[in-house]
Write a structure and sequence with these properties.
It is a single chain. This protein has helices at residues 17-25, 34-48, 59-64, 76-82, 88-97, 99-104. Residues 4-11 and 106-110 have low confidence and may be disordered. The protein is mainly alpha-helical and 113 residues long. The termini are far apart. It has one domain.
Length: 113
């Protein structure tokens, strides 16, 4: 029976460092096709998601999973908050960290009266 030749890295279950970066920060052109990019994301999603900072998502997540619309100049956490996609841990972090103050300016308490 004849042997079927396949493209070497197209079927790897291990990403090259360049492909991992492409999924994290962008660059789907490092994959042979959009379908390969998607397969790589779904195969490695659970491994890659914890490697990004809280209140952000990898580039492949934005490209393949986010169904909302990003507003011009909107930060990752703002889009995630607006769309209700923050984890409970991120919501807690957002409340404690001052991110909202960066967006809205400092909160001013008014005296009753």
């Amino acid at each position: 029976m004849p042997r079927v030749r396949r493209r070497g890295h197209a079927l790897r279950s291990v990403l090259t460092p360049e492909q991992e970066l492409a999924l994290l920060i962008g660059g789907p052109d490092l994959f042979l096709s959009r379908a390969e990019y998607e397969r790589a994301w779904w195969a490695h999603r659970e491994q890659l998601m914890p490697s990004v900072n809280p209140l952000t998502r990898p580039a492949a997540w934005w490209a393949l999973e986010f169904t909302g619309e990003r507003k011009p100049g909107e930060r990752d956490w703002e889009a995630l908050e607006r769309c209700g996609l923050l984890t409970p841990e991120e919501i807690n972090l957002l409340g404690k960290s001052g991110y909202r103050e960066q967006r809205d300016g400092p909160r001013v308490r008014r005296k009753p009266g």
